[in-house]
């Protein structure tokens, strides 16, 4: 996968030049910014390391295909890119193996693919992997559960600490309760025991 490097004095100008030359929009790329010092009396240059999201998505799909092959499974992998988030949906001949108990295998697959891509690209990229809409269903029940808890907290004004969750699940909780007038959510603790606390707040 190709990484493109552009240098200049102004980030916006660099991005415009890069997008024109790469024939893409800013939404279709991911970049890392750093400064380059040329000398004691010379001005600093901005350096952008750029990759196309489509190239990253193709790499992730290849990783998943190799993983399925290594496990002796066959399946279809759909990829979707939206708001710089890459989502893969896997439909295999044995979904239960890939999901695992309470989704632990699925979570391990996502961590493996995410880390492999991040190591190769050198940039943080948001990646979601789902199998037969397992996560979609789990997210629905999680949102339903925390909204019920939030209503209880609104009445009792007593905070509730949820069970430890990964960053993806915590984000779902924060987003689900962001529009509750008398509720605020905070994340507490250290990984892997970091959890969300649902608190009452005065409007």
List the helices and strands and how they pair.
Blueprint: E1 4-8, H1 11-22, E2 29-36, E3 45-52, H2 53-70, E4 75-82, E5 85-92, H3 95-99, H4 104-121, E6 126-131, H5 134-156, E7 160-161, H6 167-176, E8 183-188, E9 195-200
Parallel strand pairs: 5-6
Antiparallel strand pairs: 1-3, 2-3, 4-5, 7-9, 8-9
Helix pairs in contact: 2-4, 5-6
Tell me the β content: 25-35%
- Average pLDDT metric: 91
Strand order of the largest sheet: 1-3-2
Give the helix proportion (percent range): 40-55%
State the order of secondary-structure elements, H for helix, E for strand. Answer: EHEEHEEHHEHEHEE
**CATH topology tier name of the largest domain:** GMP Synthetase, Chain A, domain 3
Could you tell me how far the N terminus lies from the C terminus, measured between alpha carbons in angstroms? 50 Å
Number of helices: 6
User: Tell me, what's the shape?
Assistant: flat
Structural class: alpha+beta
Characterize the main sheet: 3 strands, antiparallel
Number of strands: 9
Count of separate structural domains = 3
Low-confidence stretches: none
Can you tell me the CATH superfamily of the largest domain?
K homology (KH) domain
Named at the architecture level, the CATH assignment of the largest domain is: 2-Layer Sandwich
């Amino acid at each position: 996968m190709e990484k493109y490097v552009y240098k200049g004095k102004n980030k916006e100008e660099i991005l415009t030049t890069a997008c024109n030359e790469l024939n893409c929009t800013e939404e279709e790329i991911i970049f890392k910014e750093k400064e380059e010092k040329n000398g004691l009396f010379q001005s600093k240059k901005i350096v952008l390391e750029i990759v196309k999201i489509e190239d990253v998505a193709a790499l992730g799909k290849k990783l998943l295909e190799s993983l399925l092959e290594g496990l002796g499974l066959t399946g279809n992998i759909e990829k979707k890119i939206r708001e710089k988030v890459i989502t893969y949906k896997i439909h295999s001949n044995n979904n239960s193996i890939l999901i695992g108990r309470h989704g632990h295998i699925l979570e391990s697959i996502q961590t493996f693919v995410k880390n492999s891509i991040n190591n190769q690209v050198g940039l943080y990229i948001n990646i979601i992997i789902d199998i037969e809409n397992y996560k979609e269903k789990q997210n629905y029940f999680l949102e339903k559960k925390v909204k019920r808890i939030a209503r209880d907290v609104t009445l009792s004004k007593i905070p509730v600490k949820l069970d430890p969750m990964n960053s993806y699940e915590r984000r779902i909780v924060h987003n689900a309760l962001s529009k509750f007038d008398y509720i605020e959510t905070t994340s507490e603790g250290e990984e892997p025991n970091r959890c969300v606390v649902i608190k009452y707040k005065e409007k």
